[in-house]
Structure formats: structure tokens, C-alpha cells
Automatic annotation (TrEMBL):
Tagged with keyword Protein transport: no
Name of a matching Pfam family: Voltage_CLC
Keyword Cytoplasm: no
UniProt source species: Streptomyces plumbiresistens
Residue stretches spanning the membrane: 23-46, 67-86, 106-123, 135-151, 157-181, 193-215, 235-259, 271-292, 312-331, 338-360, 380-411
Listed PANTHER family: CHLORIDE CHANNEL PROTEIN CLC-E (PTHR43427), ION-TRANSPORT PROTEIN YFEO-RELATED (PTHR43427:SF9)
Protein name per the record: Ion channel protein
Topology of this chain in the membrane: Multi-pass membrane protein
Length: 427
């Protein structure tokens, strides 16, 4: 009589502690350095933003967010970034439409131009976040310095440390980095146990997060009303809103190669970027000043008054912000897509609450962010984490896990919001 047996894969051999211990100090240094670079670029961009959007218009007697001023500043930002891409050595790195969170190791000569282009973008108002270029800069610096100062450390470790450190610094917690690392390692043949492989990156992520928390004290909690015990209505709401957000996000994903191709046909950064800035100015005139910038501060303003706008106004802001993200990512501005996508999801969730008051604002926001990030980033764990941390309610986790299933079915296997060098979408 045959016996059913379950074949278990042999456990990966554990890495000796003496192998991991020497990695702690390099990981700590990379974590602190990555955080300080992120905080420094953000602070410098914030100072320039105050000059562009407060001091100058006040001195000229022009409304800070008048249509004329938004058109002028965004077009001028396109000109400034276009000059950097055109003239500065390294041309501010590769086409940002072809890059994601997994950054290539760029030559050191490229990094100053990339930092400058990122700072100008953050200050000028295009709808992109700092994550992609800051990760790329930290990866390049960590690899270049680490390979020279500690040549015995495997070269492939430096990019992993820098990516984890920057993600930890961006979100103010190493949890996001841990989730991203575990997702990246899925399906790979690991040399050793999982926790041995993530040990040094987690040290870097923790150092980056703690440094950011001490220096900048970021917060993602929107302080929305807490939900109690979830009910059937909450389950229905989270399923509908997350799926609707994923579908809306996929509209932008499918449009991405066509919009990128339209700007690419202009043939020169001094044409594509100013044209993109002008379009962004027109979109800002339609959606209002809250649709400018990376969106994190603006999300807080929306959440402070969930009843302050109608469902139609929330929908307008969501669509305009998504269009602005699409244009900014297509025309050559250096930046990431996570933070503006969060704004779109929050606006959708609050719009659902305004349309159907029975939809709890925290449920709507978390579901909207989850669905939008799944479509834009295709990072499941990061999408779940970001959606959950915005509302800081343990009761939301079960709802989000359930809502992620239909939303994931809508996006998986389809094109991503990232292009290959030949302009075709990554699937």
C-alpha cells in the first residue's frame, strides 16, 4: 500500500554570527548617510519651494497659487530641469520612465546632476516624489565609497543596504524596507536563511528610519476617525473602493507609453520638460494648488477636513493628480510615483465617503490608497503597509488583506508603469 509522503525542502544552512557581525557597522553608516542625504535634499527643496511659492509672489503682488503664477513656475521648473538634463554631466541619469525602486548603480559623475534635478522638481511643484532618484543617488554613493573603503565586503551588498536604508528613511520605519526586501527575495535561491539575507539591510533600514525620525520627525498618520469593529458595510466599501482605485490607476498605466512617446517625439529635454511643465500648470489650474507637489503635505490638508469638499471636487482632484503624475513621469522630471499615487487614493477614498456617507473615511482612504498603489507600483506589501499606516487602525488590516485580492487580480499580469529602454512597457 503506497504511503503519501510530503517532501519538504531542506532548510537553508544558517549563516554563522561571525559572518553577520562585521556587516553591522557598514549597514549603520549607510543607513545614517542615506537618511541625511534624503533629509538634506528635502530640506533644501523646501526652502526653495518657500521662495518660489511664497516670497516671490508676495514680493510681486501676485497670488501665490494664481493660475498665472502656477503656469509660470511650473514651466520655469521644466526649463530649469531641462537645462540640468541637457548640460550637466551625466544628464541626471537615465530616463526616469525606465527606472523604479530597484535602482541601477550609476557612475559618481551622474549623481550631482540627479540630485539637482530632483531638488528643482520637488520645489517647483510637479507631481512626483523623491523616492526613485534618492534611492539611485544613495545606491551610487554607497557602492562607490563602500567598494573603495571596504573592498572585502561583497559589492552586491552595498546597493541592497542603500535601498533598504532609503526606504526606511522615506517611511520613517524599517517595516516598509523589510516588506520590500522580502518581496524582492521571493522566488530567488537564497544562500542561507531568509533572516540571514535580510539582516544587514534591516540594520541599514532601522538606522535610516531612526535618523529620519530624530532629525525630521515625519508622520504618515492622517488622524482620521478610528473605525470600530468592522461590519459588512465596511467590507463591501473596501472591496468596491479598492477595485475602483485599481481600475483608475490602470488607466494611467495603459496611457503611460503613449504619453511618454508623445514627449519623446519632441526630441530634446529643453522641449519636452518645459512642455510638460506647461501642461502641469494647466492641470493645476483645473485641480487647484492641492494637486501640486509630491502630495504628502496636501494629503494631510485633505484629511483635516474630510467634509470640506464635495464628492465631485474630490473626484476632480483625484483625476487631475493622476493626470499630473502621468505627465510628470512621462516628460522627464526626475521623481518617484508612490507619494502622488497616495494623494490620488486618499482623494478617491474621501470622495467615496462624500458620495456615500456610510463609507467610513478611514475605510475609504485605506482602500483607495491600496488599490491605487497596487496599480501604479505593483508592490503588494508596500501597498498594504502604506494604506494601513495612513489610518493607524488595527481593525483595518483584515479588511485591506481581503480587498487586496480582487484589486490584485485586476492588475497582475498587466503592463506596469515602467518602460524598457525601447519604450515598451514592463509586464
Amino acid at each position: 500500500m503506497a504511503q503519501d509522503t510530503v517532501q519538504q525542502a531542506p532548510a537553508a544552512p544558517a549563516t554563522p554570527a561571525r559572518t553577520l557581525l562585521p556587516l553591522i557597522l557598514p549597514a549603520l553608516v549607510v543607513g545614517v548617510g542615506a537618511s541625511l542625504l534624503f533629509v538634506g535634499v528635502s530640506a533644501a527643496a523646501g526652502k526653495l519651494q518657500d521662495v518660489l511659492w511664497q516670497d516671490l509672489p508676495d514680493a510681486l503682488g501676485i497670488g501665490r497659487y494664481s493660475v498665472l503664477w502656477m503656469l509660470v513656475v511650473l514651466t520655469a521648473t521644466g526649463v530649469a530641469v531641462g537645462l540640468v538634463v541637457w548640460k550637466v554631466p551625466g544628464h541626471a541619469g537615465p530616463d526616469p520612465a525606465t527606472t523604479g525602486l530597484d535602482a541601477p548603480v550609476l557612475p559618481p559623475a551622474v549623481l550631482p546632476g540627479l540630485v539637482l534635478a530632483t531638488g528643482l522638481m520637488l520645489a517647483g511643484g510637479p507631481s512626483l516624489g523623491p523616492e526613485n532618484p534618492i534611492i539611485a543617488v544613495n545606491v551610487g554613493l554607497a557602492f562607490w565609497l563602500g567598494s573603495r573603503l571596504l573592498p572585502r565586503v561583497p559589492g552586491g551588498l552595498w546597493p541592497a543596504l542603500a535601498e533598504a536604508a532609503t526606504i526606511g528613511a522615506l517611511f520613517g520605519t524599517p517595516v516598509a524596507a523589510a516588506l520590500l526586501i522580502s518581496e524582492a527575495l521571493a522566488g530567488k535561491q537564497l544562500k542561507g536563511a531568509l533572516w540571514d539575507n535580510v539582516f544587514a539591510p534591516l540594520v541599514a533600514a532601522a538606522a535610516g528610519a531612526l535618523t529620519t525620525a530624530l532629525v525630521a520627525r515625519p508622520t504618515f498618520d492622517l488622524h482620521l476617525p478610528a473605525i470600530g469593529r468592522p461590519g459588512w458595510g465596511d467590507l463591501l466599501a473596501v472591496l468596491v473602493v479598492a477595485s475602483a482605485a485599481a481600475l483608475l490607476g490602470m488607466v494611467a498605466v495603459y496611457a503611460f507609453p503613449y504619453v511618454h512617446g508623445a514627449f519623446a517625439r519632441l526630441g530634446h529635454p529643453m522641449l519636452a520638460l518645459p512642455a510638460g511643465g506647461l501642461v502641469l500648470g494647466l492641470l493645476a489650474a483645473l485641480g487647484g494648488h492641492l494637486t501640486l507637489f509630491k502630495g504628502l503635505d496636501e494629503v494631510g490638508e485633505l484629511a483635516r477636513s474630510p467634509e470640506g469638499w464635495s464628492a465631485g471636487e474630490f473626484a476632480t482632484m483625484a483625476v487631475v493628480k493622476l493626470a499630473a503624475l502621468l505627465v510628470a513621469a512621462s516628460c522627464g522630471f526626475r521623481g518617484g510615483r508612490i507619494f502622488p499615487a497616495v494623494f490620488v487614493g486618499v482623494a478617491l477614498g474621501l470622495g467615496a465617503h462624500a458620495l456615500v456617507p456610510a463609507v467610513h473615511p478611514a475605510v475609504g482612504v485605506a482602500a483607495g490608497v491600496l488599490g491605487m498603489l497596487l496599480a501604479i507600483t505593483r508592490q503588494g506589501w508596500v501597498s498594504l503597509f502604506t494604506a494601513a499606516v495612513l489610518v493607524a487602525s488595527p481593525a483595518i488590516l483584515a479588511l485591506l488583506c481581503i480587498a487586496s485580492l480582487p484589486a490584485w487580480l485586476l492588475v497582475t499580469g498587466r503592463p506596469q508603469m515602467q518602460l524598457r529602454k525601447d519604450g515598451t512597457p514592463v509586464v
